[in-house]
Prior knowledge:
The chain is an all-alpha fold. It has helices at 9-23, 30-37, 42-47, 51-75, 82-96, 98-105, 118-123, 125-132, 136-158, 166-194.
Amino acid sequence: MPRKTVIHKQDIINAAVEIVRTNGYESLNARAIAQYLGCSTQPIFSNFRNMEDLTGNVVQRSLEIYNDFVAEEFRRPHDYPPYKTNGMAYIRFAVEEKNLFKLLFMRDRTNESSPAEESTFYDVLPLIMKATGLDREQASLFHFEIWAAVHGIAVMVASSYYNADMDLISGTLTDVYQGLLYRFRQKEGSDEERN
C-alpha cells in the first residue's frame, strides 16, 4: 500500500498564495487549493479553522513576500534616494505582483482592527526627517500626502488603468516630492513670521 502524502500547513499557504498570484484573490477557495495540491479539502480544514483563518495566513505570507521585494529593491543599483526607493518599490510590486498587490493594498479592511502593514508607514519617517529637516509630526503628514500619490499610481498600474513607464513615474514622484517640500517649507516660513 503506497504511503499517504502528508500535506503540511505551509504547503497549503504556499498553494493559496500561488493561486492568488496567478488568478487573483477571488479565485481562492478550498476546492482550488485542493486541486492545486492534488488532494481533498480535508487537509485544508484540518490545518485551518476556516477560510478566514487561511486567508489571514495568506495575507501574512504575501506581506512577507512584499517586504522581501522591498528589501531587494534597496539592494538593487539605482540612483534613487532611500525614501524614493521605498515608493518606487511599492509601485514596482504593483507592476510585477498585481494580484498580491491587490490582496495586500486594495482589499476591504472594514473588519480589520489594524492593517498588518501599518507599522511600515512609520518606519520611513526617520528617512523623511533626515532628508527634509521636518519634525516627526510634519514628516508624518508629508508622508501621508506623498503616499496618496504613490498609492494612486500603484493602483492605476495594478488595475491595468495605466501601463507602467517607470521613468515617467520616477519623474512624477520627484515632482510631487519637491512640490510638497516647497509647500511645507513655505508654510514653515509663514508660521515663523507670525511668531
